[in-house]
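anyone seen this seq b4? input:
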Amino acid sequence: MRRVRYDSTGGPLFLEEVPPPEAGPGELLVRCEAVGVTLPVVRKVTEAPEPIPLGGEIAGEVVAVGDGVRRFRVGERVTGLCFGHGYADFALLREAMASPVPDAASAVDAVALVRSGLVALGALEAARPVPGESALVTATASGVGHLALQLARIRGASRVVGAVSGSGKAEFVRSLGADEVVTYDTPEWGEPVDYALDAVGGELLTPAVAALAPGGRLVAYSSGGGTVRAYDLLVGAKSVIGFQMARIARTEPELYERWRQELWRLFAQGALKPVVHAEFSLEDAVQAHEAIESRRNLGKVVVRP
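predicted toks r here
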Protein backbone atom coordinates (compact mmCIF):
# COMPACT_ATOMS: atom_id res chain seq x y z
CA MET A 1 0.00 0.00 0.00
CA ARG A 2 0.98 3.67 -0.29
CA ARG A 3 1.74 5.78 2.78
CA VAL A 4 2.93 9.34 3.34
CA ARG A 5 5.60 10.05 5.92
CA TYR A 6 8.68 12.20 6.57
CA ASP A 7 12.11 11.53 8.08
CA SER A 8 13.06 14.75 9.88
CA THR A 9 11.49 17.82 11.46
CA GLY A 10 10.08 20.07 8.78
CA GLY A 11 9.75 17.33 6.18
CA PRO A 12 9.70 16.90 3.28
CA LEU A 13 6.71 14.60 2.98
CA PHE A 14 7.14 11.66 0.65
CA LEU A 15 5.22 8.63 -0.54
CA GLU A 16 6.41 5.08 0.16
CA GLU A 17 5.23 1.53 -0.46
CA VAL A 18 4.75 -0.59 2.68
CA PRO A 19 2.73 -3.71 3.60
CA PRO A 20 -0.77 -2.98 4.95
CA PRO A 21 -0.98 -3.05 8.76
CA GLU A 22 -2.82 -5.81 10.59
CA ALA A 23 -5.70 -5.15 12.94
CA GLY A 24 -4.74 -5.83 16.53
CA PRO A 25 -7.05 -6.36 19.51
CA GLY A 26 -9.78 -3.72 19.56
CA GLU A 27 -8.75 -2.30 16.19
CA LEU A 28 -10.36 -1.91 12.77
CA LEU A 29 -8.42 -1.99 9.52
CA VAL A 30 -9.98 0.66 7.29
CA ARG A 31 -9.57 1.19 3.56
CA CYS A 32 -9.22 4.97 3.61
CA GLU A 33 -11.49 6.94 1.31
CA ALA A 34 -10.86 10.34 2.89
CA VAL A 35 -8.44 11.83 5.43
CA GLY A 36 -8.99 15.16 7.13
CA VAL A 37 -5.92 17.38 7.41
CA THR A 38 -5.64 19.15 10.78
CA LEU A 39 -3.57 22.08 11.98
CA PRO A 40 -2.12 20.15 14.97
CA VAL A 41 -0.67 17.48 12.65
CA VAL A 42 0.68 20.11 10.26
CA ARG A 43 2.31 21.91 13.19
CA LYS A 44 3.89 18.73 14.51
CA VAL A 45 5.60 18.10 11.18
CA THR A 46 7.41 21.41 11.53
CA GLU A 47 7.77 21.56 15.32
CA ALA A 48 7.98 18.04 16.83
CA PRO A 49 11.56 17.06 17.78
CA GLU A 50 11.14 13.68 16.07
CA PRO A 51 8.98 12.49 13.14
CA ILE A 52 5.45 11.39 14.03
CA PRO A 53 2.93 9.27 12.12
CA LEU A 54 0.63 11.49 10.05
CA GLY A 55 -2.70 10.72 11.68
CA GLY A 56 -6.02 12.49 11.82
CA GLU A 57 -9.62 11.93 10.87
CA ILE A 58 -10.16 9.06 8.46
CA ALA A 59 -13.24 7.58 6.83
CA GLY A 60 -13.69 4.47 4.76
CA GLU A 61 -14.68 0.81 4.68
CA VAL A 62 -13.78 -1.74 7.36
CA VAL A 63 -11.81 -4.56 5.70
CA ALA A 64 -10.70 -6.45 8.82
CA VAL A 65 -11.35 -6.42 12.58
CA GLY A 66 -9.10 -7.42 15.47
CA ASP A 67 -9.91 -9.61 18.43
CA GLY A 68 -12.52 -8.24 20.77
CA VAL A 69 -14.19 -5.89 18.28
CA ARG A 70 -17.95 -6.05 18.82
CA ARG A 71 -19.53 -2.92 17.33
CA PHE A 72 -18.36 -3.15 13.71
CA ARG A 73 -18.11 -5.71 10.96
CA VAL A 74 -16.24 -6.03 7.69
CA GLY A 75 -17.94 -4.00 4.96
CA GLU A 76 -19.30 -1.25 7.22
CA ARG A 77 -18.33 2.39 6.67
CA VAL A 78 -16.77 4.22 9.61
CA THR A 79 -15.03 7.41 10.53
CA GLY A 80 -12.81 8.29 13.48
CA LEU A 81 -9.52 9.66 14.72
CA CYS A 82 -6.46 7.63 13.71
CA PHE A 83 -3.45 7.96 16.00
CA GLY A 84 -1.10 6.05 13.71
CA HIS A 85 -0.40 6.45 10.01
CA GLY A 86 -3.60 7.84 8.50
CA TYR A 87 -2.28 9.28 5.25
CA ALA A 88 -2.40 5.86 3.61
CA ASP A 89 -4.46 3.45 1.55
CA PHE A 90 -5.20 1.47 4.73
CA ALA A 91 -5.13 2.65 8.36
CA LEU A 92 -5.86 1.31 11.82
CA LEU A 93 -8.67 2.78 13.88
CA ARG A 94 -9.43 1.97 17.50
CA GLU A 95 -12.95 0.69 17.92
CA ALA A 96 -13.56 3.20 20.73
CA MET A 97 -12.74 6.09 18.35
CA ALA A 98 -14.91 4.82 15.48
CA SER A 99 -18.45 5.77 14.56
CA PRO A 100 -20.65 4.65 11.66
CA VAL A 101 -21.10 6.81 8.57
CA PRO A 102 -24.76 7.15 7.53
CA ASP A 103 -25.70 5.82 4.11
CA ALA A 104 -26.60 9.30 2.86
CA ALA A 105 -23.17 10.74 3.72
CA SER A 106 -19.89 10.42 1.83
CA ALA A 107 -16.49 9.74 3.33
CA VAL A 108 -15.57 13.36 2.63
CA ASP A 109 -18.70 14.52 4.48
CA ALA A 110 -17.62 12.37 7.42
CA VAL A 111 -14.08 13.73 7.80
CA ALA A 112 -15.30 17.29 7.26
CA LEU A 113 -18.05 16.97 9.84
CA VAL A 114 -17.30 14.59 12.68
CA ARG A 115 -13.97 15.40 14.33
CA SER A 116 -13.97 19.10 13.45
CA GLY A 117 -17.62 19.28 14.43
CA LEU A 118 -16.98 17.55 17.74
CA VAL A 119 -14.30 20.11 18.61
CA ALA A 120 -16.55 22.97 17.52
CA LEU A 121 -19.56 21.66 19.44
CA GLY A 122 -17.48 20.84 22.50
CA ALA A 123 -15.93 24.31 22.60
CA LEU A 124 -19.38 25.82 22.23
CA GLU A 125 -20.75 23.67 25.06
CA ALA A 126 -17.84 24.79 27.25
CA ALA A 127 -18.95 28.40 26.74
CA ARG A 128 -22.41 27.54 28.12
CA PRO A 129 -24.22 29.69 25.57
CA VAL A 130 -27.59 31.20 26.34
CA PRO A 131 -30.01 31.96 23.48
CA GLY A 132 -29.85 35.63 22.59
CA GLU A 133 -26.19 36.05 23.53
CA SER A 134 -23.55 37.31 21.09
CA ALA A 135 -20.57 35.24 19.98
CA LEU A 136 -17.11 35.64 18.47
CA VAL A 137 -15.40 32.80 16.58
CA THR A 138 -11.74 33.08 15.58
CA ALA A 139 -10.25 31.14 12.65
CA THR A 140 -13.79 31.19 11.31
CA ALA A 141 -12.80 29.97 7.85
CA SER A 142 -11.03 26.87 9.22
CA GLY A 143 -12.31 23.30 9.30
CA VAL A 144 -13.44 23.73 12.91
CA GLY A 145 -14.24 27.44 12.86
CA HIS A 146 -16.74 27.38 10.01
CA LEU A 147 -18.73 24.73 11.88
CA ALA A 148 -18.43 26.57 15.21
CA LEU A 149 -19.98 29.66 13.64
CA GLN A 150 -22.93 27.67 12.32
CA LEU A 151 -23.39 25.85 15.64
CA ALA A 152 -23.37 29.11 17.59
CA ARG A 153 -26.19 30.34 15.40
CA ILE A 154 -28.07 27.06 15.77
CA ARG A 155 -27.75 27.37 19.56
CA GLY A 156 -29.44 30.76 19.46
CA ALA A 157 -26.69 33.38 19.14
CA SER A 158 -28.31 36.67 18.20
CA ARG A 159 -25.11 38.08 16.73
CA VAL A 160 -22.04 36.22 15.52
CA VAL A 161 -18.71 37.85 14.72
CA GLY A 162 -16.14 36.00 12.64
CA ALA A 163 -12.44 36.79 13.07
CA VAL A 164 -10.11 35.79 10.22
CA SER A 165 -6.53 36.29 9.10
CA GLY A 166 -7.35 38.32 6.00
CA SER A 167 -10.18 40.26 4.36
CA GLY A 168 -10.25 37.80 1.46
CA LYS A 169 -12.11 35.36 3.69
CA ALA A 170 -14.86 37.81 4.66
CA GLU A 171 -17.33 36.86 1.92
CA PHE A 172 -17.01 33.16 2.76
CA VAL A 173 -17.56 33.76 6.47
CA ARG A 174 -20.59 35.96 5.82
CA SER A 175 -22.04 33.24 3.59
CA LEU A 176 -22.00 30.96 6.64
CA GLY A 177 -24.15 33.38 8.61
CA ALA A 178 -21.73 35.80 10.29
CA ASP A 179 -23.20 39.22 11.03
CA GLU A 180 -19.78 40.85 11.11
CA VAL A 181 -16.26 39.91 10.05
CA VAL A 182 -13.04 41.34 11.50
CA THR A 183 -9.41 40.64 10.70
CA TYR A 184 -6.83 39.89 13.35
CA ASP A 185 -5.02 43.17 12.75
CA THR A 186 -8.18 45.26 13.24
CA PRO A 187 -7.58 47.53 16.28
CA GLU A 188 -11.15 47.21 17.57
CA TRP A 189 -13.38 44.19 17.04
CA GLY A 190 -16.69 46.02 17.31
CA GLU A 191 -19.29 45.76 20.05
CA PRO A 192 -18.28 43.37 22.87
CA VAL A 193 -19.57 39.80 22.80
CA ASP A 194 -20.80 37.49 25.53
CA TYR A 195 -18.53 34.59 24.63
CA ALA A 196 -15.66 33.82 22.26
CA LEU A 197 -14.38 30.54 20.83
CA ASP A 198 -10.66 30.82 20.08
CA ALA A 199 -8.81 28.35 17.88
CA VAL A 200 -5.70 30.49 17.32
CA GLY A 201 -4.11 31.31 20.68
CA GLY A 202 -0.78 33.09 20.92
CA GLU A 203 -0.92 36.86 20.59
CA LEU A 204 -4.57 36.70 19.57
CA LEU A 205 -5.65 35.88 23.11
CA THR A 206 -5.26 39.52 24.17
CA PRO A 207 -7.66 41.02 21.60
CA ALA A 208 -10.02 38.07 22.08
CA VAL A 209 -10.28 38.82 25.81
CA ALA A 210 -10.65 42.53 25.04
CA ALA A 211 -13.60 41.70 22.76
CA LEU A 212 -15.55 40.21 25.67
CA ALA A 213 -18.31 42.11 27.44
CA PRO A 214 -18.19 42.26 31.25
CA GLY A 215 -18.74 38.73 32.53
CA GLY A 216 -17.82 37.29 29.14
CA ARG A 217 -16.27 33.84 28.60
CA LEU A 218 -13.39 32.91 26.34
CA VAL A 219 -13.03 29.23 25.42
CA ALA A 220 -9.44 28.45 24.41
CA TYR A 221 -9.04 25.26 22.39
CA SER A 222 -5.97 26.09 20.32
CA SER A 223 -2.64 24.26 20.29
CA GLY A 224 -0.98 27.62 19.67
CA GLY A 225 -0.32 28.48 23.33
CA GLY A 226 -0.38 32.06 24.57
CA THR A 227 -0.77 34.01 27.79
CA VAL A 228 -3.65 35.99 29.29
CA ARG A 229 -3.03 38.73 31.87
CA ALA A 230 -4.96 38.14 35.07
CA TYR A 231 -5.69 41.87 35.31
CA ASP A 232 -7.52 41.81 31.96
CA LEU A 233 -9.84 39.18 33.41
CA LEU A 234 -10.23 40.85 36.78
CA VAL A 235 -11.38 44.27 35.59
CA GLY A 236 -14.25 42.86 33.52
CA ALA A 237 -15.04 39.79 35.62
CA LYS A 238 -14.17 37.75 32.54
CA SER A 239 -13.12 34.11 32.42
CA VAL A 240 -11.04 31.80 30.26
CA ILE A 241 -12.06 28.16 29.87
CA GLY A 242 -9.73 25.55 28.43
CA PHE A 243 -11.25 22.85 26.25
CA GLN A 244 -9.61 19.62 25.05
CA MET A 245 -11.50 17.13 22.91
CA ALA A 246 -9.23 14.23 23.84
CA ARG A 247 -10.23 14.47 27.50
CA ILE A 248 -13.92 14.23 26.61
CA ALA A 249 -13.31 11.23 24.36
CA ARG A 250 -11.31 9.52 27.09
CA THR A 251 -13.38 10.30 30.19
CA GLU A 252 -16.93 10.94 28.94
CA PRO A 253 -17.60 8.50 26.07
CA GLU A 254 -21.38 8.80 26.42
CA LEU A 255 -21.22 12.58 25.99
CA TYR A 256 -18.82 12.14 23.08
CA GLU A 257 -21.27 9.80 21.37
CA ARG A 258 -24.21 12.08 22.06
CA TRP A 259 -22.39 14.98 20.38
CA ARG A 260 -21.59 12.78 17.37
CA GLN A 261 -25.25 11.88 17.01
CA GLU A 262 -26.26 15.53 17.26
CA LEU A 263 -23.84 16.47 14.48
CA TRP A 264 -25.24 13.82 12.14
CA ARG A 265 -28.79 14.88 13.00
CA LEU A 266 -28.05 18.51 12.16
CA PHE A 267 -26.30 17.42 8.97
CA ALA A 268 -29.27 15.29 7.90
CA GLN A 269 -31.61 18.22 8.52
CA GLY A 270 -29.45 20.51 6.40
CA ALA A 271 -28.89 22.81 9.35
CA LEU A 272 -25.12 22.16 9.56
CA LYS A 273 -23.18 22.26 6.30
CA PRO A 274 -19.50 21.27 6.30
CA VAL A 275 -17.51 22.96 3.55
CA VAL A 276 -14.52 21.33 1.85
CA HIS A 277 -11.86 23.72 0.61
CA ALA A 278 -10.08 21.21 -1.61
CA GLU A 279 -9.33 17.52 -2.05
CA PHE A 280 -5.77 16.31 -2.64
CA SER A 281 -4.30 12.95 -3.61
CA LEU A 282 -1.77 11.16 -1.42
CA GLU A 283 0.90 12.25 -3.90
CA ASP A 284 -0.09 15.88 -3.26
CA ALA A 285 -0.16 15.71 0.55
CA VAL A 286 2.47 18.44 0.72
CA GLN A 287 0.08 20.82 -1.07
CA ALA A 288 -2.64 19.90 1.42
CA HIS A 289 -0.33 20.90 4.27
CA GLU A 290 0.61 24.11 2.49
CA ALA A 291 -3.07 25.06 2.23
CA ILE A 292 -3.31 24.84 6.02
CA GLU A 293 0.04 26.50 6.75
CA SER A 294 -0.70 29.43 4.47
CA ARG A 295 -4.09 29.93 6.16
CA ARG A 296 -5.72 30.19 2.74
CA ASN A 297 -8.22 27.36 3.24
CA LEU A 298 -11.93 28.09 3.34
CA GLY A 299 -13.31 25.09 5.16
CA LYS A 300 -11.85 21.60 5.46
CA VAL A 301 -8.80 20.29 3.62
CA VAL A 302 -9.08 16.62 2.64
CA VAL A 303 -6.67 14.00 1.29
CA ARG A 304 -8.22 11.28 -0.89
CA PRO A 305 -6.07 8.11 -1.03
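The CA atoms of residues 116 and 144 lie 5 Å apart. The chain is about 30% helix and 30% strand. kinda curious what u guys think
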